[in-house]
Amino acid sequence: MKAILSVIGRDKVGIIAGVSNKLQELNINILDVNQTILDGYFTMIMVLDLKESKASFDVIKKVLSEVGSSLGVELKIQREE
To answer: In whole angstroms, how far apart are CA 4 and each of 13, 22, 39, 41, 76?
Structure first.
């Protein structure tokens, strides 16, 4: 299954590392990524491949939401379909 992940928040050090490290722990592959900084706000959209992850989508969503909170950004994931 593929999913779309969006990350938005005030720019600061460690956002990409925090998100990508957690994706690695969940065995989720990043297929595509686009990120930019707009007027001090970090924005990133990723296309993810979840087929190798052992975690359910609901668990992935919860874990990534917690990562977003710890990084001070809004993080949302949705199924591709």
So the answer is: 23, 15, 23, 19, 8
